[in-house]
Design goal:
alpha/beta, 44% helix
Length: 239
């Protein structure tokens, strides 16, 4: 496929960094946003706190004045492990800000260039938690909203040749996942028994799906959600 200019949010580690490395190796230009610049990022990197609306607006204005973005990977996310009884409203607002408001701001900023290119791509990273998950009140709400964005934007932007799809990862062994899901060896073994493929996913598993959704092979696909979860969502997702 022709080389794209791809903006990836939350690109300093985990899924975002793995996607940047993979896409760069395939000849694409990658641009990253996160709070801290990682070592060895394979492209231009901008530091911003995506929880802050003004900081997000400033960095997006700088990026779009310099780069002709034709694809966006909305990967930045934040979660906690709290039940509805424990949930903190300030924390809730922060989770909504980074998972939803920043995603909307990013697409709005990049959309003029994507419309010019006709053939743009938006990939929103949701989560299997959107189907419901104990201890994830704020996060499941936010990631359900990401799916709502995906379906609505697909309807609105198809006329401009912009495809919009979502990836809903299951348990991926990122730093964030391991931090929010401390497990004993027995607990990990019990989780693996629930996963048909009997392993946790890797950031590279999701990077491969990102590459597919950016390719011409997905050109007639929009408004869809791909559950990349080792089969864990089977039985929870209606046909």
């Amino acid at each position: 496929m022709p080389g794209r200019t791809i903006l990836i949010t939350g690109a300093s580690r985990g899924i975002g960094l793995a996607s940047a490395n993979r896409l760069s190796s395939k000849g694409h230009t990658v641009i990253g946003i996160s709070r801290k610049t990682p070592q060895g990022f394979p492209g231009k990197f901008y530091e911003a706190d995506l929880c802050d609306q003004e900081s997000t607006a400033q960095v997006l204005a700088e990026i779009t004045s310099t780069h002709e973005i034709d694809s966006v990977v909305n990967n930045a996310g934040l979660t906690t492990s709290k039940s509805i009884e424990e949930a903190d409203l300030l924390e809730f607002e922060k989770i909504i800000a980074i998972n939803l408001r920043a995603a909307m701001q990013t697409v709005q900023a990049c959309l003029p260039a994507m419309k010019r290119h006709r053939g743009g791509r938006v990939i929103n990273v949701s989560s299997r938690a959107a189907l419901g998950m104990a201890g994830r009140s704020a996060y499941s709400a936010a990631k359900s909203g990401v799916i709502g964005f995906t379906r609505t934007w697909a309807l609105e932007l198809g006329q401009y040749g912009v495809n919009v799809n979502a990836i809903a990862p299951g348990p991926i062994a990122t730093e964030l996942y391991l931090q929010n899901n401390p497990m004993s060896s027995e607990e990990k073994s019990a989780l693996l028994q629930k996963i048909p493929l009997k392993r946790l996913g890797s950031p590279e598993d999701i990077a491969g799906t990102v590459e597919f959704l950016l390719s011409e092979d997905s050109g007639f696909m929009t408004g869809q959600v791909l559950y990349v979860c080792g089969g864990l969502s089977i039985g929870a997702y209606p046909l």
